Amino acid sequence: MPTSAAACWPRVIPDAVFEEYDPNADFLKTAAAARKGGFWQKLTGKTIPQHCQALTAPLPEASADMLWANLSLSRADDILPVLKNWAAALKTDGLLFFTHFWPRQPERADRPSEP
Questions:
Q1: Are 40 and 48 a contacting pair, CB within 8 Å?
Q2: Maximum CA pair distance of the chain?
Q3: Alpha-carbon Rg of the chain, whole angstroms?
Q4: Which of these, 24, 87, 95, 100, could form a disulfide with 73 (CB 3.0-4.6 Å)?
Q5: Would you place residue 105 in the very low, low, confident or very high pLDDT band (cuts 50, 70, 90)?
Q6: pLDDT, tens digit, for every residue of 25-69?
Q7: First-to-final CA distance of the chain
Q8: Exposure b/e, 63-100, CB count within 10 A at least 16 = b
Q9: Is the pLDDT of residue 6 over 50?
Q10: Could you tell me which residues come within 8 angstroms of residue 101 by beta carbon, excluding any fewer than 6 positions away?
């Protein structure tokens, strides 16, 4: 008899812990509302802890196997302190995944501005 993915997941990563950090409380609230009654809660009966803090506020040191940051750097005034913070939070051989928009190019007099 085939086994469902939901039944296998806790055995694959039984100690997985997910937490959300964001400087915008509204983003955290929206994420929690979107998950309410979703797959993770049905599977584990757990909620995901959320932390509203600045991107440069220290994360628990050497505690994460993986960090996922979707467009967080776009909101940072200076990305280097954020990257250092994330590096300190990762365990040895930890993984960082992030997306980021390239910085805007300064306007030049010899190049027409885009509409």
A1: yes
A2: 69
A3: 19
A4: 100
A5: low
A6: 999 999 888 877 777 677 777 778 999 999 999 999 999 999 999
A7: 59
A8: ebeebebeebbeebeebeebbebbeebbeeeeeeeeee
A9: no
A10: 71, 74
Q: Which structure tokens are listed for 86?
A: 């994330």
Residue 13, both tokens? 């990563």
Instruction: Determine the residue type at 99.
Output: T
H helices present in the chain, as ranges? 5-12, 25-35, 39-44, 79-89
User: Six-digit token pair at 84?
Assistant: 């250092």
**Distance separating alpha carbons of residues 87 and 66, to the nearest angstrom:** 10
Residue 81 backbone dihedrals phi, psi, to 5 degrees? -65, -30
In this structure, what token pair is assigned to residue 58? 């220290």
